[in-house]
Amino acid sequence: MNKSLRRALAPLTAATLGLTLLAGTEATAGPAADPAAAPASASRTSAWTAAWAASPQRPSEGFTANWSQQGFSHQTLRQVVRVSEAGERARIRLSNAYGAGPLHITGATIARSGEGAAVEKGSVRRLTFGGKESTVIPARGQTASDPAVLDVGAEESVTVTLYLAGATGPATFHAQGFADTYRADGDHRADVTGRAFDEKTQSWYYLTGVDVAEGPRTGAVALFGDSITDGFGSTPGANRRYSDALADRIERPVLNAGIGGNLVLNDSAWYGDRGTARFGRDVLDQPGVTTAVVLQGVNDIGFSEAQKAGYERPTFWPAPEVSAQELIAGYRELIRQAHARGVRVVGATLLPFGGSDHHGVHAARVSDEVNAWIRTSGEFDAVADFDRALADPADPERIAPRYDSGDALHPDDEGYARMAAELERVLETSPRV
């Protein structure tokens, strides 16, 4: 059954539940409603499924037009995300993983998205944390909101709004969201229009998850990787990453755990903790995940090639020369972690990258050795052969022109759709995933 159709077949409206809604700056729930009395939350416990996720990164000025280093003070942050599963209740997850001190969240709302920074009238729900409107997240900590009754459809967007009254200091964020995030001065968490939100960027801040409950109980698929998984080269604001294309095709929640520039074996000040270190937090701890797809390693073997080609090596850019056996050892560690938690793992071959700044004699040899091991070792539960799916028939070392975003490394929208089709085939035909 189509995911969006499931919402139509099982509607759950605010009116039938007598909810407290925030419309503009006023809340109503029928006659004599007290706006401060009750948030739009439900108290009973239920199983959660992650419907959207983003992997947190350290604050950095190294990315264009982001607010992570300066943080926020007496400002409202409005973030629009596309969920991949339907549900009748929702909660958000927030991270202060890289905060230098406690993070004070003065208040938060969730709503169905409108155009830009606007939200759908009548859908704004006030979120609480342990029954309270505000919360404090300790440094290196995280939290989840209480559930809010909100009918969410698969492949629909929800808007999460955070009001930060005090100075936050540098902010834990996800650098490359490829979707607009909005900021306004003052408290605008309950605004329906987007008029106050006169600044925008394409990063996400503090928000690392949106979970749904009361939806179908199907295991989530988490896509783990670097900028290719993150969606670099896709059309910004259009939800054309390969995770989005896959979510459109399969009847399972799909989560994106990519970080641009990320490596399997080395930490980076800009590009996040190494894959073997962050895999548990960003994939295995996500509620409802039963399958992980690992597509990572091109930076491990390609950064050193870029350095040899004359690119200046910044301090954030680890560039040791990595062997196939070292990279395979990293994959084995990811497989070990996943299997210890009962999660199945699909190994994805590295895409062709001939002609890119990551390519060279050493990288080409290691890539071929690694891809051969992924295909033949049997250590992964299944294999998605993106290398062959996107290769140029005239030159298999290169990505096919129709799939190339222009840098010979990252796919375009059509390339990401091709990856999703290949992964759909694997998920539907392999008995192990």
TrEMBL record:
Keyword Signal found: yes
Entry keyword set = Signal
Q: Where is the signal peptide?
A: 1-23
Q: Does the keyword Phosphoprotein apply?
A: no
Q: Which InterPro entries match?
A: GDSL_Rv0518-like, SGNH_hydro, SGNH_hydro_sf
Describe the location of the SGNH hydrolase-type esterase domain by residue ranges.
223-418
- Record-linked Pfam families: Lipase_GDSL_2 (PF13472)
Name of the molecule in the record: Lysophospholipase L1
Its source organism is: Streptomyces indicus
